[in-house]
Amino acid sequence: MPVIDEAVALLDVTVCQPERCPDECDDQEEAVFAAVSASTDPASTGQACYLYINLKGGDLDEWSAPITLSDWGQTAGENADAVLCIGDFVAVASTTAGELIYSDDHGTTQVLVQDADWLTNGPKDLDGIDQAFIVMVHENGHVYASTDAARTWELMDDAQATEKTLERVMIARDNPEVIYAVGCANTTDSDGTIIKSINGAENWFALTDPRSGETSFCYTALWVANQTDVLVGCDDGEIWETEDGGVTWAQQLDPPGFPDLGPSVNDIVGCGCDVLWMAVSGTTASESVIYRNVDGGASGRWFIPSEADGITQPPLAIACAGVNLAVAVGGVPADTSGSVVLLA
Which DSSP symbol is given to 339? Predict the structure, then answer.
């Protein structure tokens, strides 16, 4: 399993092209990937966050030199938390900075976007099928959308559906009007939340919470296979699925080799032909696991592929460009250690 160890934690990764999450069975060997990092020194100010680009299908010798996200790192712990990449267009969000940077040339030139509300309700994640519509979720239940490639943003929901922090968002590829978002506690609530829009982010509503009444957990992973079939993962290891758009939910069985202590389902992605990948971390790097599923994410069908042995850092995010081609990134932001893993 090819691995690159970095001196900085890598927090998110995505595939830029040919097509984001293609519904086909061939690996996209010339796929472009983008990854972003934490601050090079979380305890200090004036430290950089980075963008990395790979134009050669994730080949570990082909990652660009770190591209400095020059407007960030001026506050301790200021990270580049989420990245969206579509062709040459890249948008990166920072929760701590309360800002977004977009670029039309893979980070060579960068434009900073600010909003007063984002300083209180920092952006957490974003998704888009093309540049004509991008949705971004924030702390404290705020949702924004852009229809001009991240130049300007409109507030779509100011905590009407939920007041909790939204960690993940994804648009249904078979019906872009349907969007799901998941999240967890803020300063006043300590349980998870799942919300949905059926009119392109104009209005949002809370779905039935499969863990209603439980506290001290967070929904940290989200995969929207289509407008009705959805998987969510939690920071305490639980995995839930719905086949009716969130009306009812079923809990999945723990996969084989699941971490005994502190399991967290950090990311779930798919790339066609019913193949999914899942990144799970434990309390130590040795307990961290990357899973594969060739049955659409069905319970009891997750397994650890041979190429996923020997992970050196907890995997925080994963992206794929085909059924046999995925890139995972991770690390521990507190001690600036990270890694890139090519699964091919």
Answer: E
